[in-house]
Amino acid sequence: MKIGDKVRFLSEVGGGIVKGFQGKDIALVADEDGFEIPMLVRECVVIETDDYNVPLKSASKPAVPATEEEEEKEDDRPVTYRAPEIRGNDVLNVYLAFVPQDVKSVSSTSFDTYLVNDSNYFVDYLYLSAEGKGWTLRSRGTVKPNMKLHLEEFDKSGLNSLEHVAVQILAYKDDRTFLLKPAVSQEFRIDTVKFYKLHTFQPSDFFAEPALIYEVVKDDETVKQVFVSADDIKSALLQKSVSQPSSHKQEKQHKVK
């Protein structure tokens, strides 16, 4: 990869022309609006190259090789980063996803947890699990627009700690005006038995592998979860039996002639 190559991003929407480099690992890619986006070299794939894109030497004024000092100054230039957006994707959609590392060995494989941000907003998040009446923070951070973020890896021995989890999110845009989205705090009761069943994991638009996906926010609306415990069911049945009066058929009495 060199200056002048046209590239696209592997894990984000967009691409552009390579304008320079910051160190060995960061490429400065100019999008169609001229904004230079810093991107890891390994996250870029060349889709069009010009082997003759080296500046031509002028006969009257030969080019002078850039010194190391000049290259360092160029690397220190401030870079304007603008998150790529998808038209019509200003509606907030966020998902919590569990992906088996080897779906063919679902009874023994480990799993990866992701937070999927299918919107043009940055999403600050907390991912927590319940321990009795308290909560434990499992992951926190920011998911860029139209991206997914790996939260953690776990095996079957860690399933018990995932029976009751929560996701809290705050959505915003940091480089332009935007419509305000409400903060979200969503709890989930995870049926961990599902992690032993192959049909639990289904194809999706977000992963090459089958995944178990829970909706945190769907089209700007918080998805309500219904929690019913065994104690709740037992209590409801007892109340029902008490409230219903016993109905015994009364024997008909006949007048004595």
From TrEMBL:
<dbReference type="Pfam" id="PF09640">
    <property type="entry name" value="DUF2027"/>
</dbReference>
<dbReference type="InterPro" id="IPR018598">
    <property type="entry name" value="DUF2027"/>
</dbReference>
<protein>
    <submittedName>
        <fullName>DUF2027 domain-containing protein</fullName>
    </submittedName>
</protein>
<feature type="region of interest" description="Disordered">
    <location>
        <begin position="58"/>
        <end position="78"/>
    </location>
</feature>
<feature type="domain" description="DUF2027">
    <location>
        <begin position="92"/>
        <end position="244"/>
    </location>
</feature>
<dbReference type="InterPro" id="IPR036781">
    <property type="entry name" value="Smr_assoc-like_sf"/>
</dbReference>
